[in-house]
Amino acid sequence: MKLRILTILAVVVSGVGMTVVYQAAASLDGTKPPHAVDTAGKAIPESSASQPDKPFILSKDSADPKWGEMKPEMAFDHSKHNTDAKHTIDGKTPTACVYCHHTEQPMPVAGQPYLKKSERTEVLTTDQLDKSKQPVNSCRKCHFQEASEETAEFPPKGVTYPKEVGKSPSGKLTNDNAYHTKCIDCHNAAMKRDPTLKAPQACADCHVKK
Ligand code: HEC
Ligand code: HEC
Ligand code: HEC
Ligand code: HEC
């Protein structure tokens, strides 16, 4: 009798344990709660084969005591960043999808020997996406938040750039580091080229101060 109660207890306890682990794992990808929501209130899923058609507010789930989500006027406009010449690094060359979605291409990539992780056998373009219907993964699927429990693989431990890139090693690629590097490097370069542009560079340009 005693043994039976103990067994039931053990099953219940391990069940509760599993639920906790499951919930923790589910939150890592920024979907529970969502890390990004578009201006119509729709959450950015873990992966999707449709490009976001409305601007979206990132960092909704910020756990930082000082810096909260993106300001409403700093919603990320995916369409403009892909079609508008002003939103490019040099004012003319369209930004390749894989400039941001770096895992959506075969490896190795010329000039970027530090990139290793590949999730697509062809280079992602609008056409490739339409034909293949292979979903694109959210950055947050791999670039976890600082407070998250780490796996052997994610968040990536960091990369060392070749000398000619002239940047110091990245350090651990949590979400803040990954997005900041990708977004702000280009904003800094664009503002240097044309100071009349409005590419956000400072913490308070992008984040709501808590
Ligand atoms: C300036 C950077 C940037 C460029 C360039 C870019 N994207 Fe994105 N894309 C993003 C971000 C950021 C997200 C939101 C995912 C996230 O926050 O994790 C996203 C989301 C997506 C999604 C939805 C993924 C999901 O999780 O729901 C698809 C599909 C997509 N992009 C396709 C493309 C294609 C195709 C191109 C080229 C035509 C492209 N992207 C160019 C930054 C970019
Ligand atoms: C499937 C997992 C995965 C996804 C999705 C992913 N990354 Fe990464 N990221 C990595 C890994 C792993 C590395 C380390 C280099 C490598 O092994 O390829 C890395 C490296 C980086 C780096 C440092 C290298 C560099 O180019 O400066 C940045 C910045 C970065 N990611 C930003 C992003 C952004 C922004 C997105 C979404 C648009 C994204 N990552 C999506 C796994 C991922
Ligand atoms: C390849 C270059 C490039 C990358 C990568 C890039 N941006 Fe931009 N972004 C720009 C430029 C240039 C502007 C200024 C456009 C203007 O003044 O008309 C801009 C403007 C913006 C603005 C102001 C509103 C708007 O749409 O004009 C926001 C917000 C923004 N970017 C967020 C981001 C975020 C978040 C990321 C990373 C996911 C990112 N950007 C990545 C080039 C880039
Ligand atoms: C171009 C806009 C932009 C600028 C400028 C910027 N950030 Fe961010 N920040 C982001 C984005 C985008 C994310 C990650 C979004 C996500 O995970 O949904 C982020 C994430 C973060 C996080 C992680 C929060 C969490 O718990 O997930 C912190 C902390 C942070 N930023 C602080 C800063 C500080 C400090 C500065 C100034 C030194 C700064 N940011 C400048 C866009 C920006």
Give your account of this protein's structure.
- The structure is a single chain.
- The protein has helices at residues 2-27, 78-83, 97-100, 126-132, 175-193, 203-206, and strands spanning 37-38, 47-48, 56-57, 67-70, 136-137, 207-209.
- The protein is globular, with a radius of gyration of 20 Å.
- The chain contains six helices and six strands, in the order αββββαααβααβ.
- The protein is mainly alpha-helical.
- The strands form three sheets. The chain has a two-stranded antiparallel sheet.
- The protein binds heme C (4 copies).
- One heme C is lined by residues 58, 74, 76-77, 80-81, 86-89, 95, 99-100, 179, 182-183, 186-187, 190, 197-200.
